[in-house]
Specification:
57% of the residues lie in helices and 7% in strands. The chain is mostly helical and 167 residues long.
Length: 167
């Protein structure tokens, strides 16, 4: 089996903006959590069911797990995105198609990690509101919207990755 070409991709301006928004979002999650931590009651919602209602409760220190997980995942995906040749692709990667395939795949990962951080940020925000009695759950639309913003781009990218390009 032929080894995939190792190519360093140049970031577009949109890629750079997406990265900046992602890092700022990670920072905002931490600020939101730290600023509100002492204002939280001792028991807060820590789990929500499929219709967005709180169905699990725990100590307020549990709120820290959300920014920790968001940060670790964002860092991991950022590092992973430097090695697009390590990804699995639905087509064979050649010297001729590597740049196109790697570009599509890294843009998808960049988008997904931003969405991931925004989702974690929303959950932190709503958990703080729920704990303070200012809201009730995540909302019935949370899960359908989450699934749409994650899976529609994945399906779109798979279609683009499997399309044959004219040489």
């Amino acid at each position: 089996m032929e080894e995939k070409p190792k190519i360093k991709l140049e970031l577009t301006n949109l890629d750079k903006v997406t990265e900046i928004i992602g890092w700022v979002s990670v920072l905002v999650i931490w600020i939101l959590t730290v600023v509100n931590f002492n204002k939280l009651p001792d028991i807060i919602p820590i789990h929500y069911n499929e219709i967005g209602e709180a169905d699990g409760f725990g100590g307020k220190a549990n709120i820290l797990t959300l920014p920790i997980i968001a940060t670790v995942l964002y860092l991991f995906l950022t590092i992973l995105n430097y090695f697009p040749y390590a990804f699995n692709y639905p087509t064979n990667i050649t010297k001729e198609n590597a740049i196109k395939q790697y570009t599509i795949a890294t843009k998808l990962v960049r988008y997904l990690k931003l969405i991931l951080v925004l989702i974690f940020g929303f959950i932190v925000f709503k958990t703080i509101q729920n704990a303070k009695g200012q809201a009730n759950g995540l909302g019935i639309w949370f899960l359908p919207i989450l699934l749409a913003v994650v899976f529609i781009p994945i399906i779109y990218a798979i279609i683009k990755l499997t399309r044959k390009t004219k040489i």
